[in-house]
């Protein structure tokens, strides 16, 4: 009977001491600043909403060949001219589009990056 009580008390102590260690680690992790870490393939679109041109900049890019597709809100592909402004900087001429919401799909050739972003054409 004493062995069972000792085993139970040992398990109880390990359970509470383990949870306090987890709580301490949680406190440490809570103050970890993830905003200081650099994000890979961070896409910035500006100005949004736009009237004439939509600029796209991809920070910390790992994309070799990026392809772009613009869709209207119902999903139809819209032909929009793209200018390469610099490394990982692009400009889309949306001046001739009808006002409304559009989706910009960005993909790389390897298929590792597939993202879609919404913008408003005034």
Automatic annotation (TrEMBL):
* Residue stretches making up the Secretion system C-terminal sorting domain: 45-112
Q: Which residues form the signal peptide?
A: 1-23
Query: Which domain of life does the protein's organism represent?
Result: Bacteria
InterPro entries reported for this sequence: Secre_tail
Record keywords, A-Z: Signal
Q: What is this protein called?
A: T9SS type A sorting domain-containing protein
Q: Write down the species.
A: Fulvivirga marina
